[in-house]
Amino acid sequence: MADLNSVKQFLRDYDGPEMNIMEVCGSHTASIAKNGIPSMLSKRIHLLSGPGCPVCVTPSSYIDRLIELSLTPGMCVVTFGDLIRVPGSAGNLAEARGRGGRVKMIYSPMDVLPMAEEDRKTVFVFAAVGFETTTPVYALLMKEITEKGIDNIRLLTALKTMPPVVNFLCESGAKIDAFLAPGHVCVVSGYRGYEPIAENYSVPFGVSGFSGPELLITLCALVRDRGRGVVRNYYPLVATRDGNPGALKLIDQYFEEAPAYWRGIGMIPGSGRVLRDQYRIYDAGSRDLTEDRKANPACRCDQVLTGKLRPYECPLFGKVCTPMTPQGACMVSQEGSCFSYLANHRRD
Q1: What global pTM score does this model have?
Q2: Is 93 buried (19+), middle (13-18) or exposed (0-12) by CB count in 10 A?
Q3: Contact yes or no for 313/295 (Cβ under 8 A)
Q4: Distances (CA, A) of 102 to 94, 119, 122, 124, 143
């Protein structure tokens, strides 16, 4: 397996049963395209993009709530850039800003702290979106807010965890033969959570890094492990079975497990995290966001996120829907599968 040339030859010449391998991490999707990996694979190996882009799986009701808050006197929404153009049920934050809404883009969650300290008359609502990878940063933000006694910051959270949605895909009968497990997520939470899924559904998981060789080695192992309920770690320098205990402890101090609504999928029990009851004063209405309506009924993001369609099979792809005019969330973020496929001219 260590010989990269033999790995490439195996993947190119593979002539066994057809295999659907899903990468559930948006960074894996981008790296697969960047490294030209689809062109190195046998036509019997199919790569599917999954629900691994946090912006892409955020429901329209979350965007609608941010828009409402941005237009409320005395309030300002603070967010990363890729969320500004994500469509809600009727419009996005960029359009709200054009109508007078207060929306500020930042590069780090900690940037909201000096804003709030300098302008005590404004309530700053931070859009906390992400998976296990970014949740520790939001916990650190809460630590700073509470220790400094800053009372004009609120969080609107859309925090999700990966194992429950992967289990949902398997439980719903998705035709997936193996999973590229998310490397960054496993650094924080570990890969222990995927072991019962692998065992229950007899599907292999491979924790992978993000370089071309790392991905090829993991894909080769997954093909060889077809039908076996195992989890193997091919990212050992940074990912472990139990993850980062310090980060997990900090997360648990401020957040608790809760149901979460996934765009295009629906409500999945235990797949989200919300602020604990003692910190609900800092919440901007996160628990009530359980609706998802397409801005464009022809959008197929829901089917792309669950591996039922490849992005270019959506009728809007590259035509009505482009990075400049996104009709669905998958075309907005650089981790979105539609964005990645279009930017890299990918046609598997």
Answers
A1: 0.90
A2: buried
A3: no
A4: 10, 14, 10, 10, 25
Give the CA distances from residue 77 to residues 86, 90, 125, 324, in Å, rounded to whole numbers and listed in that order: 14, 18, 5, 22
Ramachandran category for residue 150: left, alpha or beta (phi over 0 → left; psi -120 to 50 → alpha): beta
The CA distances from residue 137 to 115, 133, 216, 337, in Å, are: 18, 8, 31, 25
Say if residues 103 and 70 touch (Cβ distance below 8 Å).
Answer: yes
Question: Which of 24, 51, 29, 49 lies closest to 265, judged by CA?
Answer: 51
Q: Do the strands 103-105 and 266-275 form a parallel or antiparallel pair, or are they unpaired? A: unpaired
The half-sphere exposure of 224 on its side-chain side, counting CA atoms within 13 A, is 13
> Which one-letter amino acid corresponds to residue 120?
R
Over the chain (348 residues), the average pLDDT of each successive run of 10 is 85 96 91 93 94 88 95 97 87 94 95 97 97 96 97 97 95 93 95 98 97 96 97 96 97 96 89 97 92 83 87 92 88 86 84
Task: Report pLDDT for 129.
Answer: 95
Contact 310, 33 (CB under 8 A): no
- 10 Å CB burial of residue 162 (0-12, 13-18, 19+) is buried
**What's the pLDDT score for residue 126?**
98
- Positive or negative, the CA dihedral 96, 99, 102, 108 is positive
